[in-house]
Amino acid sequence: MEFIGLTTYIVGILVRPQEWIGVIKNMPIIDFIAFFTIIATWMSVSSRALIVPRIPENLLIIGFFIAGLLSHLAHTYLGGMIFTADTMSKILILYFLIIVIINSINKIRALAWIIILCATFNALSGILQYYKGYGFGGIVPLVFSDGMIRIQGSGIFGDPNDLALFFIMTIPLILVFIFEKEGLFVRVSSIFCGATITWALWLTNSRSGFLAFIVTILAYFKNRLRWVKWFFFAVVFFAIVINFLPSRLSNTMLDESAYDRVIFWGEGNRMFKANPLFGVGYGMFSEHSYSRACHNSFINCYAELGFVGYFFWIGLLYTVIYGLWKVNDCFVRENMQNVNSLLPFGNAILASIIGYLTSGLLLSRTYVLPLYILLALGAKTSYMMANGTRLAGNLFPASHYRRILILSAGSMLFFYLATKFLLRVF
Description:
Blueprint: H1 2-15, H2 29-46, H3 56-73, H4 78-101, H5 105-132, E1 142-143, E2 149-150, H6 160-179, H7 184-204, H8 207-222, H9 227-241, H10 247-250, H11 256-274, H12 297-331, H13 339-359, H14 369-385, H15 398-425
Antiparallel strand pairs: 1-2
């Protein structure tokens, strides 16, 4: 029951039928599904049919949520706290539902296929937009004065860049079903989904999306190939891809749009210097920057949530990535139970997270739900691979908190210096 509720909830988030199907349009159907899934999960946890794994990611994401509230409390903005509690609670709920309910390789496989099929549905809708002028639910593409067409989705995928990132996060999962020991039907279906999604990705004409696509593919095969073979693959792959770049990526990256990005990175650094501890407030960047976005997820985080929120966010990213990397490096050699079947999914999720964060260098996507689907899946997969005994199976030793502190401060310094340098270049 809990798994059905979770998958239905995720389909609602990724396909968003409540925004374009007339019978249920504008109804809070997703909220109802989430509510009943939470109740069912709570009952199962109470009866010990399901357990909440004791991992540091749980504390870090709760800290991230509290930091969002504190970012407005520091400015005594009650309305902002209510807004933050409403929006960031969705991240918290989705994370914990995945962490608790996903407890077997079969559920990981099933959830991976649900994500892939949702992406394929959006891809087919986008292809119809491009060639017919409208997709499922009457969604129309963005058409620019120069004739350029960019497909888009609904709701959280209303920006072509967000739609592109959704496609990218599914590609490593598809590669798992193509390259691992699967039946003919599964492989053929995976190839069809992969080809459809890649085609639609090209139609988004997203520069940040295509950059993330390249990094995601290279990250995925890095875990499958040795250094020499991987380097040869990277050269060949890049030589092929460079000939199929979308029109916007074929143009210079140092255009007016890129200059504007750097300007608003500087604005984010200015906001942090004025409010270093708790930031200017969750969702308040545009209020302090002429209604413009930051175009960098990292700067957006410490500008809005200050060092407190940034510490928890970086800590969450570090913990999930480190956990996936560590079990891949250490536990496989010990031939632990379930590792062989889970390892391909761990590698795929790791590649998807790396690709998502690559796009985060050019887009403000600190709080998007697909990122937290990946983080929750990554945390639970590495926990399962290590049979609950990995580094993150218990709370971190102090050394890891020091690493997070250094990563947080170091990355902030890097973005500050990079912004100063790029402003001089422009």
